[in-house]
Design brief:
Strand content: 15-25%
Number of helices: 14
Shape: globular
CATH class: Alpha Beta
Structural class: alpha+beta
Radius of gyration: 19 Å
Length: 344
């Protein structure tokens, strides 16, 4: 039960995009800060509204990889655990790490059901095209997560085919973990299919914040699950480049903050974070699905709630909460920031 009354929900936040001295665009953003006991400490906008967390919950989905014993059975390294939590950029490092995970379970890329897309990293995509190659499923930003699902299936003796479908035992167990972490029912009515073909479930934004607080602090979790969460957090902190990629928001924040912050982006303007030292979780949803709005909001909220930010943390978060805009010639032409905040 919450130990204190929930604060009154404030209006949604607004991230404004300016050109010259004029506001050119505006994004409306919903955000919740909560602790692992379920207490909401700050709410902006519609916290109870169910949203699809998409890839933001990959670390929660990866808890099964550790809890099931599959990670230890196949000798997964911290780098491989980090990739299981990743929306990676498809660089050669990401691709080969995913390939290695599958090989440890006696599998290869043909087992992946995530589909193929060009690497999110522009340099990697250009190199692939320059060589006359087409992208494969290993380049998919979700291939690490899928490799984790496949190794769980292999370890527990489940069928490999259909591992991505809602009624496969792997996905049923993942759904149960998500329900336990969020404290929200995960029902067929709330289920849809994610971009990589696995199920995604709509849950209230405020419950995502609670889940990330629990992921970061272990509050309310059984000892085995708390240990699994700590192991995954340590892995991503040690390998932030594997979680996203060069220059991307998640990587930049965790390169600066290490284990003090775990942050994970999802599609359609979703971004979640855990601040273990504060026992807090943050969940953000840009109403129009704009990642840039979610990132600016998250950087600002991290600066507000991260205890005693170091000089490096403050410097990086300041840059991320108020990024400048340049044109194709490299000229500074505008800015992005939360309404009411000065530039960094």
């Amino acid at each position: 039960m919450p130990s204190r009354p929930a604060p009154k929900a404030l209006a949604p936040l607004h991230v404004v995009v300016g050109r010259g001295a004029q506001v050119e665009s505006c994004h409306r953003v919903h955000a919740v800060v909560a602790d692992g006991d379920g207490c909401v400490t700050a709410a902006h906008g519609d916290g109870p509204r169910p949203i699809f967390p998409r890839s933001a919950v990959k670390a929660i989905q990866a808890l099964l990889l550790v809890e099931s014993g599959a990670a230890d059975a196949f000798g997964f390294t911290p780098a491989e655990l980090a990739l299981a939590c990743a929306s990676h950029a498809g660089t050669p490092l990401h691709v080969e790490t995913a390939r290695g995970m599958l090989a440890k379970a006696g599998l290869d890329a043909t087992a992946l059901a995530c589909g193929a897309h060009w690497p999110l990293d522009e340099a990697a995509a250009r190199d692939l095209a320059r060589g006359g190659a087409e992208p494969g499923s290993l380049h998919n930003n979700c291939s690490g997560k899928h490799a984790g699902f496949l190794t769980v299936a292999a370890h527990l003796g489940y069928r490999i085919a259909g591992y991505e479908t809602p009624h496969h035992p792997v996905q049923e167990r993942v759904a149960a973990i998500l329900a336990e972490m969020t404290g929200a029912p995960v029902t067929a009515a709330a289920r849809a299919i994610d971009g990589c073909s696995v199920p995604t479930w709509a849950v209230p934004l405020e419950r995502l914040a609670v889940a990330f607080a629990r992921l970061g602090s272990g509050a309310g979790l059984a000892p085995g699950r708390a240990a699994a969460a700590a192991r995954l957090r340590a892995a991503v902190a040690a390998h932030p480049l594997l979680v996203a990629g060069p220059g991307r928001f998640d990587t930049r924040v965790m390169e600066a903050a290490g284990e003090r912050v775990f942050v994970k982006i999802g599609a359609e303007g979703v971004l979640c974070a855990a601040i273990p030292a504060a026992g807090l979780g943050i969940a953000v949803k840009a109403e129009d699905g704009a990642a840039r709005a979610a990132e600016v909001t998250m950087a600002s909220l991290l600066l507000r709630h991260l205890p005693s930010p170091t000089e490096r943390e403050r410097h990086e978060l300041d840059r991320l909460r108020a990024p400048g805009l340049s044109n194709w010639k490299g000229l500074s032409v505008g800015w992005i920031r939360m309404e009411g905040e000065a530039s960094g």
